[in-house]
Amino acid sequence: MSSIDEAVTALSGVQTAKKDGMLGDRDLPVWLSFSLLNSDIVELHSGEKLEDALEKLLGKFPGFINGLFLNCAGLDIITAALPVLIRLGKEHAVDVFGAYANRFAPINNKSPNSIEKSFKEDAHVCNLIDIPEEEYLEQVKTWIKLGCGVVGGCYGMGPKYIEMISKYVESSALGIKSQLP
């Protein structure tokens, strides 16, 4: 989710689907993930602060959100934002946390129109940041120590990144198992 309104709309839809029996007798968990703007302030692409979004959504949907995640942002912004996400999530009985960073060059322009224009003009250009697999794994270890039980990679994180994470999880004494075959 990239804005509070987007998250409210999605959560309201899921809430209605559950209430109206559209999911049958399945009691599926509700996991919510935020895409962050790469900046010095931990904020959504809408410019809203992550902390404000979490407080509003967790207050508006008490006990409804089972998992909170961060994705589609660089390593530094995810690592900076996780303590806020996990602290507020735990205060509202959220029990699953996760993170997926990407390798895209940061978007520094906060204007939605400028961002859309940039994507249209540069759609053929893939500006990936070089992040060694070992460096990514070190950040993932930090995320796990902070409380993430679900970790992986987003755009630009290829199979070698995921394989390294899987091997670490399998070989560590974390008491969790990789979902890779």
Report on this structure:
It contains six helices and five strands. With 181 residues, the chain is an alpha/beta fold. Helix 3 runs parallel beside helix 5. The longest helix has 17 residues, at 75-91.
Considering the chains and any ligands shown, give keywords for the structure.
single chain, alpha/beta, 181 residues, 6 helices, five-stranded mixed β-sheet
What is shown here, in short?
The protein is α/β, with parallel strands linked by helices.
Count of alpha/pi helices: 6
Q: Which residues sit in consecutive blocks of at least 5 with pLDDT less than 50?
A: none
Would you report the number of β strands?
5
The total domain count is 1
What gap, in angstroms, lies between the N and C termini? 29 Å
Task: Estimate the global geometry from the Cα principal axes.
Answer: globular
Q: Work out the radius of gyration.
A: 17 Å
Label the structural class.
Answer: alpha/beta
Strand content: 5-15%
